[in-house]
Amino acid sequence: MEAGEIETMPEPKVLICMPVDHPGYVVPGSLHWTCHKCKRGVWVAPSSWLILHKHPGMEVYCWGCAFARMEKAPGEIMKLTPTQQKEIVEYRRRY
Ligand SMILES: [Zn+2]
Q1: Residue 55 class from Cβ within 10 Å (0-12 exposed, 13-18 middle, 19+ buried)?
Q2: Which of 20, 57, 93, 94 could be cross-linked to 41 through a Cys-Cys bond (beta carbons 3.0 to 4.6 Å apart)?
Q3: What percent of the chain has pLDDT over 90?
Q4: Average pLDDT over residues 66-71
Q5: Distance 1 CA to ligand 1 centre (A)
Q6: DSSP secondary structure letter of residue 77
Q7: Is 56 among the domain residues?
Q8: How far is CA 20 from the centre of its chain?
Q9: Which of the residue ranges 1-15, 34-48, 57-71 has the most confident prediction, judged by mean pLDDT?
Q10: How is 13-45 classified by DSSP, letter by letter?
Q11: How far is the CA of 17 from the centre of ligand 1 (A)?
Q12: How far is the CA of 35 from the centre of ligand 1 (A)?
């Protein structure tokens, strides 16, 4: 495994993203994406699109769909990376 590579076990299949209609802070540089399940618009933060780039098979889910799925298959949801955690801390600091 290369340095800096995200260690994941098992291979993550779902990336959780913030819905675009959620009010508040959006990480600068976020891309507009669509929830795989409900087709709602979501924001993919820069830290997350790097993950998507490394795992092309990953599905992007909005919070609602991700949490519903997590109850059924917890192992399929990716853990937060340190960069994502920083983004969330930034979000919480502002709102
Ligand atoms: Zn959804």
Answers
A1: middle
A2: 20
A3: 21
A4: 82
A5: 32
A6: B
A7: yes
A8: 13
A9: 34-48
A10: -EEEEEETTS-S---TTPEEEE-TTT--EEEE-
A11: 9
A12: 5
Tokens for 83, please give them.
């960069």
Domain presence at residue 11: no
pTM of the model: 0.65
Taking the centre of ligand 1 as the mean of its atom positions, its distance from the CA of residue 2, in whole angstroms, is: 33
Structural domains in the chain (count): 1
Residues surrounding ion ligand 1 at CB below 5 Å:
35, 37-38, 40, 62, 65
Residue 95 Cα to ligand 1 middle (Å): 23
CA of 21 to the centre of ligand 1 (A): 12
Residue partners of 84: CB distance under 8 A and separation at least 6: 45, 47, 48
Find the domain containing 28 and state its range: 18-94
**Is residue 42 in some structural domain?**
yes
